[in-house]
Write a structure and sequence with these properties.
One of its GO terms (cellular component) is cytoplasm. The chain is α+β, with helices and mostly antiparallel strands and 140 residues long. It is built from seven helices and four strands, in the order βααβααβααβα. It binds adenosine-5'-triphosphate (ATP) and magnesium ion.
Length: 140
């Protein structure tokens, strides 16, 4: 499998509980390398733009509110099959359905406060990386 880059975000529910290091360790232990990272408190406009694909969903307001309720850590991850590997280590969207050992099973509070985001395909990975990072901020 090819070396890929994917976008990851540690959400406010996790940064508030001081889990940035614990979650990053789980990503690194799974073989992913953090090649860009910064802490941002996103604006409502940034959150709405980032999650625009969900704007018609009933939970959109709650999602934007949660994402702007505290700092997030945005990261670019690199590794063999990084996009799928990150989704596997994240676990299912609803932590009640997530496998043992995944980030969401270990740390998430609910389907809304589920601690991490990860890109779901090569196209969204490229878009999401470009949404948060310039080329010079990514150091592989
Ligand atoms: P993410 O895109 O954050 O990595 P995901 O791809 O597993 O998560 P999506 O279907 O893309 O899940 O939903 C985006 C986010 O919206 C979820 O991570 C969750 O925080 C929130 N969300 C999804 N479904 C619900 C719901 N039914 N109620 C509340 N929040 C939800
Ligand atoms: Mg998603």
């Amino acid at each position: 499998m090819a070396i890929e880059r994917t976008f990851s975000m540690i959400k406010p529910d996790a940064t508030k509980r001081n889990l940035t290091g614990a979650i990053t360790k789980m990503l690194e232990d799974a073989g992913l390398r953090v090649i860009a990272s910064k802490r941002v408190w996103m604006s409502k406009r940034e959150a709405e733009g980032f999650y625009a694909v969900h704007k018609e969903r009933p939970f959109f307001g709650e999602l934007v509110e949660g994402m702007t309720s505290g700092p997030t850590v945005v990261q670019v991850l690199e590794g063999e099959g990084a996009i799928l590997k990150n989704r596997e280590i994240m676990g299912a969207t609803n932590p009640a359905n997530a496998d043992e050992g995944t980030i969401r099973k270990t740390h998430a509070l609910s389907i809304g406060e589920n601690s991490v985001h990860g890109s779901d395909a090569p196209e969204t990975a490229a878009q999401e990386i470009a949404y948060w990072f310039s080329e010079t901020e990514i150091v592989g």
